[in-house]
Amino acid sequence: MAIQLSDIAASRVRHFLENRGKGIGLRLGVKTTGCSGLAYVIEFVDELQEGDEVFESKGVKVVVDQKSLVFLDGTEVDFAKVGLNEGFQFKNPNAKDACGCGESFTV
Amino acid sequence: MALLQISEPGESTAPHQHRFSAGIDLGTTNSLVGMVRSGEAVCLADSQGRSLLPSIVHFASAEILTGYEAQALQISDPLNTVSSIKRMMGRGRQDVGQPDDVICYDFVSSETSKVPRIRTRRGDLSAVEISSAILKALALRATQSVGGVLDGVVITVPAYFDDAQRQATRDAAKLAGLNLFRLLNEPTAAAVAYGLDQDSDGLIAVYDLGGGTFDISILRLNKGVFEVLATGGDSALGGDDMDRAVAGWIMQQGGFSDIDNSLARMIMLAAREAKENLTDSDSSEISIDYQQSSWRGNIDRDQLDKLISPLVKRSITACRRALRDAGVDKADIAEVVMVGGSTRVALVKTMVGEYFEREPMCDLDPDEVVALGAAIQADILAGNKPDSDMLLLDVLPLSLGIETMGGLSEKIIDRNTAIPVARAQEFTTFKDGQTAMSIHVVQGERELVSDCRSLARFELRGFPPMTAGAARIRVTYQVDADGLMSVTAEETGSGVAAEIVVKPSYGLSDREIESMLRASMDHAREDIELRMLKEQQVEARRVIEAINAALAQDGQMLLSDSEIAEIEHHRSNLEAAIESATSEELKQLIRAIEDASESYVAKRMNASVTQALTGKKIDEVDV
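Structure tokens for the assembled complex are given below, as produced in the milestone run.
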């Protein structure tokens, strides 16, 4: 079971955490909502919750709750720029079908 | 493929429901748009990496161009290329076009329109319409940067903007199709960008030296609320003046004579470049090659400082004045925030630091700092922060009151109350059978309405007639987050109500507010004395009114002729004295009537009790 950050994603996360001045890591998760079933969650972490799994990827603590982990195992998170827009992208081998927006998916 | 941003813990939104928001610094020379992404405020750059958008709009026949594209056409098509439109926002026709203004557009002379309009090939346009073109360009940049629609924006305005100028800015946002969360004062935005709103309470000076204007603001942070204590500055002092000073030196050194427009522009550009180079290095090469004339020279930091120090001194003088206006001591200033591109100049930093005796804050890009603060504020207002991060509020600069009998101002919302706010107070009728009430909304600290600023008048009509004092009229004052005010009055028994929205054209400038506040302190004692006198006059009239009504009803029945004469004697004494007596004398005359009619009052009470009881059995009477 593992979740990876790309080099650039890791450096952006470290930068944002530093800028924020607090927080122990990055929470990745899924919640059941959205146009095709499941949606990604990406948040700062101030404290761990019960049942959280913590991974270390390129100097960043990645926190995933056990329920989400089933859907996220093997995922790589990247940071991309498209035109003026930029942000994090999930490359998730579990996702069979993503809606056009890429914010939600089914397994 | 969506590009996701990191949310605050627990603040993740459902797909397609991200709350995007932006902060816009709508400047005179340059405008910017900022946004909080993954918890970090950043200014958004265009496709060429430039975050500044020159506040210039060009009206071509096919499209509207803004920014650098419009700037390029400024020389070739000046009448259809508008810059510095901010100076015209919320201004009447008589306010613009003074000789010292650089505005040289083709103004439409029209009697029907109160706002000045500029004739362009796309029609006669107002400042609001032109500003909205800049806002649209910035909003487009923001939506392209997030790949979604904007939930709302925060736009910054100078602290000295009056209500009319603020309303014009609001209108421009509306015209651009933007949901304006609120307007924010520029110095406040700068302080927010540095996170000073999270600091402990204290005084902050915001030193804003731009291309063409200088503003100094003294803010007080009190329980998370920024209050503008004083603003000052010089509307004709900025980096351009420094460039001119350096250009003058170049012309003198190079022995240039017979300077045409193109050479002058070339020298100005060289001067600016030299000034900017000297921010990081101790000397800068200058070379001018133009037709026959050519010159090569060198300018060092000392020379630049010598040229611009009179300009910087002027700004320091304005700082001193602002501190005096705010009534605070230099030593009480906790932080000095630097805003505006010209604060990059080393001498500016040094002299400001020396004057305030502390290191000014200049870590953030001084061009971007206002937009960054606006972005942070917009992010909070969009709901991307937990509730614990309190909202930054503004305060009312002057109390809002209502006129009561005798021309007195009864304050409903006190000055320095944080807005938005709603306060209600109950009033009653003065005369028997009164069915209408005139509501007069006033602004100011003085006791007499005539010394306050009149904001609005309206009437509440058609409530049922009642005895004086029986009607209950609830007057509610409401001020929204932008400082826009509405007043409602309702007779609570009958539900008859009336409402008014106070027109923003009654706005006061900071200077006027300042002088009104000062007047209220200077006149405090006489105001109170006048208030007491007016109150006694109102009371005297009420007593006379009541006595007359009573005598007419049952005077003959209950009193002897001599008793009536006695009461009438005191009443005429009081009547004669109302306008001339002091409040103490009036009080005694009123007491004299009350003493003289004491037995009359008792008889009336007995009579009405007897009347109520006549013909009733004892157990029918409710005790």
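Residues 9 and 15 of chain A are 10 Å apart (CA to CA). The two ends of chain A are 17 Å apart (CA to CA). Further analysis is deferred to the final report.
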